[in-house]
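Rotation project, supervised by the postdoc (A.L.). Task for the rotation student: set up a whole-complex structure prediction and record inputs and outputs verbatim in this book. Inputs entered:
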Amino acid sequence: MNGGFALMRHSARRVRILILSMAGLLAAFQVLFALAANSLQELNAFDRITALFPDFVRQLLGSSLITVMSFRGIACLGYFHVAVVATLVGLAIAIATEPATEIESRFLDLVLSHPLRRHWVITRSIALLGASILFVVSAMMIATRAGLYWLVSTDVARTTFQVVPLLSLNLGVLLMCWGAVALGMAAASKRRSVAGAFAGLLAMAAYLADVISQVWDPLKRVARFSPFHYYRPLNLVTGNADVSGDVLTLAGVAAAGFAVAYLLFQRRDL
Amino acid sequence: MPAPAISIKKLSKSYGRLTAVKNLELDVRQGEIFGFLGLNGAGKTTTIRILLDLLRPDAGAASVLGHDCQSQGLHVRAQVGYLPGEMGTYGDMTGRDVLDLFGRLQTRPVSMKYRQELQERLELPESDLRRKLREYSTGMKRKLYLIQAFQGNPPLLILDEPTEGLDPLMQESLYALLFEARRNGSTVFMSSHVLSEVERICDRIGLIRKGTLALLSSVADLHKLAQRSVCVTFRSDVSSRPEGVPGECEVLEAGPRLWRLKVRGSIGPLIQSLAGLPVLDVDVAEARLEEVLMRYFRAEGP
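Outputs recorded:
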């Protein structure tokens, strides 16, 4: 077997429990959101819940609140809820920073003392990142579909699911983008804690910049540099967004991040 | 004449202001056991890591079996079995996982029969290989990683302090493996702090001090540099001022019936100078390589 694939297999075995449990947890979340949307729909409670929000919150959120407080909004909430997004970005960072762990523990000394090209360390991480994101997001999609088709009585369920693949695609590319940023940092770092903390703080700052820019115009220019700016789930939920531009932008950033990671890792001392 | 197993030319490596290796020149012949000695921080591990292309040198070049370590690193590493000084592990891997993973990373075929033989000789049975590494002692890890280094039967073994953590019986087993590897034409390049071990198993040694080679010698030649302690006892009183004693002898004590001397090199001239004296006994202690090496470690050597 090719050494690179042996390394991939080794890493996949190490993270499989984490990925499986994460996928299971988030899939269960999607089913719960579908059930919650159904329940609110049956009670016709969306308007009443919206009315419970204070005036300033309603003014601040504007049409976004109405979008979220709908059957589609609640059923798809699991794709853009801050806790879910933070968890997924954290997962992407954790997988992408594996090279830094291996450098720190000196495991890579042994790996690269064998006839294995250095690029395999980065290629392995990219492949693992892509496969993990694909698996988790697919599990979420399947769970949403299952929830909407089998557990929900309303007809709106079928039209709701149409936006989920696009949401998943955009979310998946966003996660690849953050994985690429973290991998770039891991490729230059000797410690996972440093690479992970920097990537995490950067993600948090980028998220806040994007959120605040929606209500504070001076930050709008800065927010363009935030990957979260190119993930607009509410527009997707209302069916008003062409996702291709955002996906291409995020894919471009991810590709640049991966290229930087290859370059840094190829040149560095281990 | 075959290419040297390892050839290092004017190799330098710094970490910021700290110079780890400076203009290092060294050739290791094929088929020898070469001891690479030095104090902590002398530059041994840095040199080894450059050979494996884990570190990139600032200047100079290193080659293994005729292949440049940087531009032809893949060829180099295909010929090397490596035991690191610091064994990076994941505690949740089993010993079997480690051997299988590193076996797959090799391009040389791993014989299961040979691996089994190594396990038996280093006393690491299957039951231990099924255990997680977090349950391994330091010595068990060392044995596991030695099997990993030997299992591909490589032409060059690079071992960073291979006996550290091994009990005396396992040390003997390892020595036997090293001698066997040499008999089969493999080269061993090992770093060590244990001077008695180096004296016993190495053909040649290189001593590195502050990043430069302070000594390169065969162990046999080094023995000649070592001083032997000689104690001469006399049947009756003799002069307490030894006269006619050759210049290479250092007189430590000279009583009427007992002389203590240190002799460097051949002992013949001393024996000749004792002719005619009422000698009762001559006791010659074996020369200790450690004394010579300690001089170099303390930077007293040339």
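Student's summary: The mean pLDDT of chain B is 88.
Supervisor addendum: The first helix of chain B runs from residue 44 to 51.
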